[in-house]
Amino acid sequence: MASLAEIRAKLKEQETRSTGGSTSGGDNAIYPFWNIKEGESTTFRFLPDGDADNTFFWKERLMIKLPFQGIKGETDSRPVQVQVPCMEMYGDGCNILQEVRGWFKDPALEDMGRKYWKKRSYIFQGFVTDNPLTDDTTPENPIRRFIIGPQIFQIIKQALMDPDMEELPTDYTAGVDFRLNKTSKGGYADYGTSTWARRERPLGDAEMAAVNTHGLFNMSDFLPKKPGEVEVKVMSEMFEASVDGEAYDAERWSQYFRPAGMQARTGDPQKAASPQATAVSQSAPVAPTPAPEAAPVAADPAPAAEAAGGGAQDILAMIRSRQG
């Protein structure tokens, strides 16, 4: 388990880098805190990652949402959305983001760029010590997983960087609980008033028994499998089709990536792909969309009226001209 000093050093390193550059098994282990009512609170006690090589007690998850007009061949099909992993999650370059970054230099393409920008979340684990969800049933293994968005993560991170925090909040004897408060702001759920407890609390006997009995999850097990060469090609193909306003083609892509609830087709997907290629599973659901995360800012943005002047076809034409 990494020390608090090691975590702080790693966070500072990431900040410097950022500034300088510019399977769920069908159980209810994931706690749906986003379902609590406005004005309610819930309390977590975070636990370390089961992977001792992970400096942090969380894993970052980067996904890209690809919207489609519908499903090819289905006349009554509604719009669908497919999530694909961003290759930056694995330390590689992402072809999709490389394309999208350029759109933020053109005010008319900024909205389109935000639509395809990576969505960031963080996977934690721990106990729910105060649960306002009456319809939520604690599983046999009470160690739950949490899909945390950027706003809550910043509160967690700021406390870790505070010199007044002397012990890791995940410490079994000297750790502290996290109080998550739900309000609303600008039509979105807001968790900005969430905070850490002021007093340390050792884990109770039942909590320690759960850790000793069930062990800790390895957070990396709940990230999507890293796409191989074939999957990367498929993601790029799907991205282009999505931007062009095409329908989702299950015959070509469902073996690899598909909308939630759709089964893979057994025909001949991706004829040019290797027959050994396997579908990339999406191992953790995503909470309802929070307030939009900041994306690259365009230089010298034009007035809003000018940016909004073009229609969808004009925007697509500009994108294609940039690709050319």
Task: Give an account of the 3D structure.
The structure is a single chain. With 324 residues, this protein is of the alpha+beta class. Helix content is 27%, strand content 16%. The chain is built from nine helices and nine strands. The protein has helices spanning 4-20, 95-101, 110-116, 150-161, 205-214, 229-243, 250-253, 304-307, 312-323, and strands spanning 41-46, 59-68, 80-85, 119-130, 144-148, 178-181, 183-185, 188-190, 195-196. The strands form two sheets. Strands 1, 2, 3, 4, 5, 6 and 9 form a seven-stranded antiparallel β-sheet that branches. It has a two-stranded antiparallel sheet with strand order 7-8. Helix 2 (95-101) runs antiparallel to helix 3 (110-116). The longest helix has 17 residues, at 4-20. The termini are far apart.
**Count, helices:** 9
- Give the % helix: 25-40%
Order of helices and strands: HEEEHHEEHEEEEHHHHH
Output the structural class: alpha+beta
Poorly predicted runs are: 18-26, 266-284, 298-312
What would the average pLDDT be, to the nearest integer? 82
Globular, elongated, flat, extended or rod-shaped: what is the shape? globular
How many extended strands?
9
**Termini Cα gap:** 50 Å
Biggest beta-sheet profile: 7 strands, antiparallel
Strand content: 15-25%
The radius of gyration is: 22 Å
Spell out the blueprint of helices and strands:
Elements: H1 4-20, E1 41-46, E2 59-68, E3 80-85, H2 95-101, H3 110-116, E4 119-130, E5 144-148, H4 150-161, E6 178-181, E7 183-185, E8 188-190, E9 195-196, H5 205-214, H6 229-243, H7 250-253, H8 304-307, H9 312-323
Antiparallel strand pairs: 1-4, 1-6, 2-3, 2-4, 4-5, 6-9, 7-8
Helix pairs in contact: 2-3
